[in-house]
């Protein structure tokens, strides 16, 4: 069990983390990015913190399992060479490119249930870190929580026959179906449900119904692609 240090330096049991499935694991993303402000030097922050022994402290003193790829991300390969400031914003194209990549890196740790520690870098990186954790939380505690409760009710020793009507999806994703209703699931949510059922190991059969190519000429291909995606996820494909 990981420990937390109190104000007097005495180690105390870790507070229960309600939203993390792996509360004793820390996923570290080091970001040597300074594009969002004008003062030089902040890109050296992650290296300084790591070389001082921060990650060893987390592991040895606080008993956390630390996941770190030994990379300080600068995103030099994806930021544009020409990037003029715009209405007070410093290098908006660079910030956008870097934070989009960072969002995915943070998401991968958060999706796995770890506490995500991002070491910057300037504060513009929060655009990516917050969006990455929010994406994972929406999946795990939005539709993910619903699926979790449903599977818990079914139990781990019950065979599952998944019957999926594509009109459960929003018409944006599946317009060519008999009863399209706005406000339905996104395709990502539908795929997530199918993937979660697959991961139980209890799926024995699946129906995919109400794909009607004759109803929406333009939307038929979208609906067919959505149906294919649902089947693939139920048979082991992943959201990524």
TrEMBL record:
The keyword Transmembrane helix does not apply. Belongs to the arginase family. It holds the Pfam family Arginase. One of its GO terms (molecular function) is arginase activity. The keyword Metal-binding applies. It comes from Ajellomyces capsulatus (Darling's disease fungus). This is Arginase argA. GO terms for cellular component: cytosol; nucleus. The gene is CAR1. Keywords: Hydrolase, Manganese, Metal-binding. PANTHER family: ARGINASE. SUPFAM superfamilies: Arginase/deacetylase.
């Amino acid at each position: 069990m990981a420990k937390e240090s109190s104000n007097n330096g005495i180690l105390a049991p870790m507070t229960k983390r309600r939203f993390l499935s792996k509360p004793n694991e820390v996923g570290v993303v080091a970001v040597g990015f300074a594009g969002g402000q004008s003062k030089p030097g902040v890109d050296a922050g992650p290296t300084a913190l790591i070389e001082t022994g921060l990650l060893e402290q987390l592991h040895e003193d606080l008993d956390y399992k630390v996941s770190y790829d030994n990379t300080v991300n600068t995103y030099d390969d994806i930021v544009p060479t020409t990037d003029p400031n715009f209405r007070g914003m410093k290098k908006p194209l660079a910030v956008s490119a870097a934070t989009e990549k960072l969002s995915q890196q943070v998401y991968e740790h958060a999706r796995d249930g770890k506490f995500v520690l991002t070491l910057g870098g300037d504060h513009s990186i929060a655009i990516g870190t917050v969006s990455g954790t929010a994406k994972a939380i929406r999946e795990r505690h939005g539709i993910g929580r619903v699926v979790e409760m449903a599977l818990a009710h079914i139990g781990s020793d019950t065979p599952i026959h998944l019957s999926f009507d594509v009109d459960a999806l929003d018409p944006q994703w599946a317009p060519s179906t008999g009863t399209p209703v706005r406000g339905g699931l996104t395709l990502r949510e539908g795929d997530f449900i199918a993937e979660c059922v697959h991961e139980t190991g209890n799926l024995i059969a699946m129906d995919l119904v109400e794909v009607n190519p004759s109803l929406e000429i333009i939307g038929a291909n979208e609906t067919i692609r959505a149906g294919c995606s649902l089947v693939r996820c139920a048979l082991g494909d992943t959201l990524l």
